[in-house]
Automatic annotation (TrEMBL):
SUPFAM superfamilies assigned: CarD-like
Cross-referenced InterPro entries: CarD-like/TRCF_RID (IPR003711), CarD-like/TRCF_RID_sf (IPR036101), CarD-like_C (IPR042215), CarD-like_regulator (IPR052531), CarD_C (IPR048792)
An example Gene Ontology biological process: rRNA transcription
Protein name, per record: Transcription factor YdeB
CarD-like/TRCF RNAP-interacting domain mapped to chain residues: 1-111
Native species: Aquibacillus koreensis
Length: 153
């Protein structure tokens, strides 16, 4: 499915690169594993090839989706009526999908709320992580301009 050297997005971890595909024997069973180096955390993970399609790992978004992502980021409002714990759960679920549009919504909403008042510690950490994940992926989109990147800063 993925090739060595290819960039991928792994929900809740961000952008990574496929370093190798190795065969390992674990508990007496041989399997192929994708060895992925995560760019933000500098962590290395191994995922069985048989589970890669159910893991929500996906390729980096392309330039064609960028306009929609910019639209999402520039338009819309957070649900200010939700208690923060419920909002946190909703945002966590959006990030877990690995969908860049939903990640952009989380960054947008928390960014707007951050301008209005300080975020609590959990939401601040979520904002920082979601923003880092979003930016790490956007920077890899072939053809993206600096001006387009500035929209998300």
């Amino acid at each position: 499915m993925f090739k060595i050297g290819e960039h991928i997005v792994y929900p809740m971890h961000g952008v990574g690169i496929i370093e190798s595909i190795e065969e390992k024997e674990i508990s007496g069973e041989k399997q192929q594993y994708y060895v992925i180096k995560m760019m933000i955390s500098n962590m290395q993970i191994m995922i069985p090839a048989s589970k890669i399609s159910s893991s929500s790992i996906r390729p980096v978004t392309d330039i064609m989706a960028l306009k929609q992502i910019i639209q999402i980021f520039q338009h819309g409002e957070p649900d200010r009526l939700l208690p923060w714990k419920h909002r946190y759960k909703v945002n966590t679920n959006k990030i877990k999908t690995g969908n860049i549009q939903e990640g952009a919504e989380v960054v947008r909403d928390l960014s707007i709320m951050k301008k209005e008042k300080a975020l609590n510690t959990s939401e601040k950490k979520m904002f920082d992580n979601a923003h880092a994940f979003l930016m790490s992926e956007l920077k890899l989109i072939k053809g993206i301009t600096e001006k387009q990147l500035e929209v998300f800063c």
